[in-house]
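Protein modeling request. Please complete all fields; requests missing the sequence field cannot be processed.
Requester role: graduate student
Desired output: 3D structure, token encoding
Chains: 1
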Amino acid sequence: MIHICKSSNNGIAHLVAIALWMAFTATAYAQSSTVCNDDGTVTFYYTNPGAKDVQVDVQFAGRQPMTRGADGVWSATLGPAAPDMYPYCFVVDGVSVMDPLCPQYFPNEGFKNSLLEIPAKTGMLAHDIKDVPHGQVEYIHYYSQSLGGTNNAIVYLPPSYYKQGNVEQYPVFYLISGTTDTEEVYYKVGRMNYILDNLVAEGKAKEMIIVLPYGNPTKLLPTPPQGMGFGMDVFGKDLVGDLMPYVESHYRTINDSDHRAIGGFSRGGNQGLSCGLMNLDKFSYLCSYSSFTSTTLPGVYDNASETNSKIHLFWLGVGTDDFLYGTARDYMEFLDKKGIRSVKEYTHDKFGHTWMNAKYFLDITLRLLFNPEAAEEAMKNGQPALAATGNEQAFTPGVMARLFPRPIISPDFGTDGITFRMKAPEAKEVLLQTELHDKPLAMQKDEDGVWSITLTEHTTDVFKYCFLIDDTQVADPSNMYLSPDRGFKYSVCNSPANPNSLTAMGDIPHGKVCYDLNRHTATYVPPVFQEHKPVLIHLIPGSDDTLESWFKVGGADAIADKLLAEGKTKPCILSTSVDLESKWDEIYTLRASDYKTWPDRRKALEQLLISMNK
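Delivered output (614 residues):
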């Protein structure tokens, strides 16, 4: 999901891609904050007359100053840059701000960046949205015995999966994002679905199911269990013991090691390698993108012949300019010395530890997965690790501390209320703005430059909020939950004390939310159907909402799951699609615009669902 630059030099294929994407997001703007110029540079615009200093921070150029115009519009032209997708943000008087005109964003537990796409002038890129059959993306919830709570994942199904009469079973690739990434990143930034759609349409890859786990699941729980790290810890136990059984019982999968793959980017690559190597009876395709794993996994490295016999593909890629390159190279060399076969790929031009590399590596490996002949040919041609030069970047505790400083907890759900915090040492005033209060609320600054406020009301509501830092709207950088609005992206406060919170539900059946990329709709399907046709509830987004809003903020799927489990409603379909209305006899319509706030909308949906059971 990317902000595509306006440009005067796009071909028909790019116009098709842009049309498809705008239809999916249902978002269009009369003005744009980015313009791709014919010489490969990009001009950024940001309107904020009251700001004293504004910079733009984009992955291909770093942080660069912007110039203020007489009309209060700041601008900067940077580049040229290669066609690709790049995270960026504006730094306003020292505070990072997402682009309020960009509809797409980088899902992350911490930083908040918008997304820019620079299209190719000729040809198309691997991740482009082409006019080919598209698969379906489904958001699932499942109860994890390993966690003692509910976890999330995303499942991509190939274009043929739901074709009428199709009973085919499919191989499965478990693909994990990096540190601080959510399960959405390989979808919304990595574009795994479009890369695979394009390869399958060209006959260059096998159809498969891709599952995107959440790599930091204990963050979802009020009291995280001990032992969260890499591999066969809480994450690995959840993946093998809970997520895989769920996937294999709810989808048509081929359940043997020859038809399972696992891999990921950064931390996800570490988790994927560790989990895969410790479960070679379950996985025979292993992929590491910009990562490495432990050299002390028991029973793995000291019997090369047995290990090699169980692996169809052991693929490792890293950029030589990646801060993990030194450690990743050492791991490659370790495998060589142990006699473990592997394929190694290096890049030099994708800005190191970035999602440009992650997409590039994915495009290469998808062509090899579940294709034993192609995988074996790649393994035979695998080269030794590059020789050490002594100048490699190393992953040290200092690097770890710089990349992942001690976090600020916000919102912080305590017994005395909800505390919101924002670090802005240079700000003169910071206010909390919520949809539940008519006026912004003043926050107090401590000696460390952290502003805070505690709310003792609305502690079980789900609501949108942001900070006003010297009159500039800023999403909470410590909150991973963003409202998928068309314009400015508010943060979402969702207390675990909310009775409809997933963390409060316990072990109940869950439906799924299906994003149909051909029809550009979002639809909730309940966990079970009764014999008669279920009721349809048509959910109409508000003027500033997208098709995700009723589920990401409204929690429509979680509310329906809970009421179904309690026997307070009957199975129903919840959908943003107008086309479905002609296929149902019993239809209800719920318009977001009829209600002022999301708590009001959620309450209206709950009351409607309960009324259907009477």
